[in-house]
Amino acid sequence: MVEVHLWSGLRRFAEGREAVEVEAATVGQMLDALKRDYPGLAEPIEAGVSVSVDGRIIASDLTEPVASDSEVYLMQRLRGG
């Protein structure tokens, strides 16, 4: 299981939890599991989120591995100018 810490704006889609656990081996599997287990997260994930794994922002590599001891954060993308 991978523990995913949720950015404050995403917590309302996961019953107010700061962190949730999902079964996944890659960033792509993790995002799919989050959408499946927490359907409210599907729209924000599809709109675009940033994923941090062990302090590195994963821009587009859905095959990036995640492990049970990885530090993972899911953040809403900031927009504006």
TrEMBL record:
InterPro entries: Beta-grasp_dom_sf (IPR012675), Mopterin_synth/thiamin_S_b (IPR016155), ThiS/MoaD-like (IPR003749). It comes from the Bacteria. This is MoaD/ThiS family protein. It comes from Lutimaribacter marinistellae.
